[in-house]
Amino acid sequence: MTELNPWIDGLVALLLLIGAFFLLVGALGMLRFRDFFQRLHAPTKASTLGVGGVLIASMLYSAATGRLAIHELLITLFIFITAPVSANLLAKAALHLKLPSKAGHPERD
Amino acid sequence: MSEQRSPAARRWLAHPVMSALLAAGWLMLQQSLDAGNLIAAALLALVIPRMVGGFIGDGFRLRAAGPALRLTAIVLWDIVQSNITVAKLVLNPARTPQPAWVPVPLDITHPNGIALFASIITMTPGTVSCIVDETRREILVHALDCSDPEAAARDMKARYEAPLREIFG
Amino acid sequence: MTDLALDITFGALVLAMLACGWRVLRGPEIADRILALDTLYVNVVALVIVLGMRQRSELLFEAALIVAMLGFVATVALARYLTRGDVIE
């Protein structure tokens, strides 16, 4: 295995740790928040900076070890496009089921 | 612009942005720029938009590349910043968040613009767009920790909707 | 340094997935379980990518892409089932 440039090595490690931190915080939010609509905010953290950090680290790592890999960008893009859609559908389902919310219910039909 | 385009170009390149994304996506998946892959990418970029054209309606062309790049930068910055804010909220056991429903009135009319606006709101942690109400022309947003819903709505409109209106016209 | 960071990320991901798994088992509402599954698959995508970095293999990339796609489709189908009582009408 080729020896990594220490700067790139550090940067990859830092990005990985940032990703891990936000993935963990997202899961903790899932445990800690009281009602469904608050918990809905947890995956937005996990899927933006969490997965984003890990994927950028992976891209940088493979570029530094000699093979250019930009296909991680595809996963990032896919998750960025799909995460809001699934969050929106889940929110609609929860409103339909009239799940309790600390903020009260929006006056809707 | 569209008057100057030939009928063939209008038929085969009705969705230029989608075509470009498809070709780029194929080449990224294959990780190569061989002649064969370039031909396959061009074929996909021409055929798929025609096949799905009936489902997705009219295409749009990138009118303003400058505002689009600026909006991307703003959104990325906001994602980082609000991630940190929400992380603090989660990790501090003494604080209980004050959730609120924030109705955001819509000024933008292009359907793709509305969809993008709703997605951007969800992607920035701390706000999730729950219902896009096209008849009332507003998005109902659930904010995780918000004491002033009106200010939050104004902020979102100024930061994301104004550039989106420039882009989609 | 990267190897150490990979190990730490692994640990963090396991903890995050355990938390999501607890929410899947616990509920209380069915929407909570689906949301937890959604978060779980996002964590799995990150886990597969980290595994790929550790084994220096590109093969796992496709696995991550497939997990991401199936997870999205599953969430959409389940959420639709909750609102409509039916996936395909």
UniProtKB/TrEMBL annotation, chain A:
Keyword check for Membrane: yes
GO molecular function: sodium:proton antiporter activity
Record keywords: Membrane, Transmembrane, Transmembrane helix
InterPro entries named in the record: PhaG_MnhG_YufB (IPR005133)
Superkingdom assignment: Bacteria
Record has Thylakoid as a keyword: no
Pfam families in UniProt: PhaG_MnhG_YufB
Chain segments annotated as transmembrane: 12-34, 46-64, 70-91
Annotated NCBIfam families: CPA3_mnhG_phaG, PRK12674.1-5
PANTHER family xref list: ANTIPORTER SUBUNIT MNHG2-RELATED
Protein name: K+/H+ antiporter subunit G
Organism of origin: Methyloversatilis universalis (strain ATCC BAA-1314 / DSM 25237 / JCM 13912 / CCUG 52030 / FAM5)
From TrEMBL, chain B:
Membrane topology: Multi-pass membrane protein
InterPro entries: Cation_antiport_E (IPR002758)
Family: Belongs to the CPA3 antiporters (TC 2.A.63) subunit E family.
Cellular component terms (Gene Ontology): plasma membrane
Compartmental location: Cell membrane
Top-rank taxon: Bacteria
The protein's name: pH adaptation potassium efflux system transmembrane protein E
First-listed, main subcellular location of the protein, grouped into a coarse class: membrane
Transmembrane segment boundaries: 12-29, 35-56
Organism for this UniProt entry: Methyloversatilis universalis (strain ATCC BAA-1314 / DSM 25237 / JCM 13912 / CCUG 52030 / FAM5)
UniProt KW keywords: Cell membrane, Membrane, Transmembrane, Transmembrane helix
Keyword Membrane in annotation: yes
A GO molecular-function descriptor: monoatomic cation transmembrane transporter activity
UniProtKB/TrEMBL annotation, chain C:
Any Pfam family: MrpF_PhaF
GO cellular component: plasma membrane
Keywords, sorted A to Z: Antiport, Cell membrane, Ion transport, Membrane, Transmembrane, Transmembrane helix, Transport
Gene Ontology terms for molecular function: sodium:proton antiporter activity
Subcellular location as annotated: Cell membrane
Transmembrane regions: 6-25, 34-53, 59-82
Domain of life: Bacteria
Keyword Ion transport: yes
Topology relative to the membrane: Multi-pass membrane protein
Principal subcellular localization: membrane
InterPro entries listed in its UniProt record: MrpF/PhaF-like (IPR007208)
The keyword Membrane is annotated on this UniProt entry: yes
Similarity annotation: Belongs to the CPA3 antiporters (TC 2.A.63) subunit F family.
Protein name: K+/H+ antiporter subunit F
Naturally occurring in which organism (per UniProt): Methyloversatilis universalis (strain ATCC BAA-1314 / DSM 25237 / JCM 13912 / CCUG 52030 / FAM5)
